[in-house]
């Protein structure tokens, strides 16, 4: 049903001043037609459990299993978990951006991190034809943080809140190179069948192109598969 490409092209990345490792895989699946058909038939709903500015549907488990089995050795290389840890899938979605910039909540106008845990990983797969906006990685200028560890959270949020309070007027639009308080240091292009794996504690955002990306139609919108996994102690 799904098949990972044995000839997929792997490129290891080092992101930000922290030189956090990430992995880029091009031509990840042998064929995107099945996952696109599944997306076209899926029931997308507004995501009320996160700040994702769009709609989501459950990702087929057969797809998730195929991808995780294929990339598991790379995940071990990426974060080098302790030997008594196991990989635990936590969330898996098909995602479409749909929220206009004028309707964004304040936190949706800023780069974010998924979880302040170095063993938490995001697996992002671009599924649609382009052109669409890619993914950007950011550094918070005042603290110098490009990733947020558990012991950095308080300083990061406290400093950012002070900046936002002092800001004259609300921030506008999706995060991009002009977003106050942050530097966009890395942009990864949206390409069909490109898969990106990165630790979820990195500050990042979709680089949204409203003219091409905002659509609830899986055939025309910025369709992605999103898997969130974490290495946790066994038992």
Please, could you describe this protein's structure?
It is a single chain. The protein is of the alpha+beta class. It is 20% helix and 31% strand. The model has no long low-confidence stretch (mean pLDDT 95). An 8-stranded antiparallel β-sheet has the order 1-2-9-6-11-5-4-3, with helices on one face. Strand 1 and strand 2 form a beta hairpin. The longest helix is centred in the N-terminal third of the chain and has 19 residues. The two termini are 32 Å apart.
Mean pLDDT: 95
Rg estimate, integer Å: 17 Å
Distance between the termini: 32 Å
Main β sheet profile: 8 strands, antiparallel
Regarding quaternary structure, what we see is: single chain
Q: Look at the helices and sheets and give the structural class.
A: alpha+beta
User: Which geometry do the CA atoms define?
Assistant: globular
Number of strands: 11
Strand content: 25-35%
Helix content: 10-25%
Q: Sketch the topology as an H/E string, one letter per element.
A: EEHEEHEEEHEEEHE
- How many helices? The count is 4
Widest sheet: strand ordering? 1-2-9-6-11-5-4-3
Poorly predicted regions are none
């Amino acid at each position: 049903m799904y098949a990972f490409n044995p000839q997929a092209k792997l490129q290891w990345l080092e992101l930000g001043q922290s030189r956090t490792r990430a992995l880029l895989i091009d031509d990840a699946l042998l064929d995107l037609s099945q996952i696109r058909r599944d997306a076209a038939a899926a029931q997308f709903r507004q995501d009320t459990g996160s700040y994702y500015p769009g709609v989501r549907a459950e990702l087929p488990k057969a797809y998730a299993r195929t991808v995780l089995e294929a990339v598991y050795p790379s995940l071990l290389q990426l974060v080098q978990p302790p030997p008594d840890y196991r990989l635990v899938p936590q969330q898996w979605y098909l995602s479409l951006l749909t929220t206009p910039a004028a309707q964004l909540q304040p936190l949706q106008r800023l780069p974010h991190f998924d979880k302040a845990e170095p063993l938490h990983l995001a697996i992002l797969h671009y599924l649609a034809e382009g052109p669409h906006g890619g993914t950007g990685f950011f550094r918070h200028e005042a603290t110098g943080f490009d990733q947020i560890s558990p012991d950095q959270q308080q300083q990061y949020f406290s400093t950012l809140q002070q900046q936002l309070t002092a800001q004259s007027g609300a921030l506008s639009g999706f995060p991009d190179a002009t977003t106050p308080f942050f530097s966009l240091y890395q942009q990864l292009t949206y390409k069909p069948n490109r898969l990106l794996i990165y630790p979820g504690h990195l500050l990042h955002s979709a680089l949204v192109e409203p003219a091409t990306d905002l659509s609830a139609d899986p055939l025309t919108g910025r369709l992605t598969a999103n898997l969130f996994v974490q290495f946790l102690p066994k038992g």
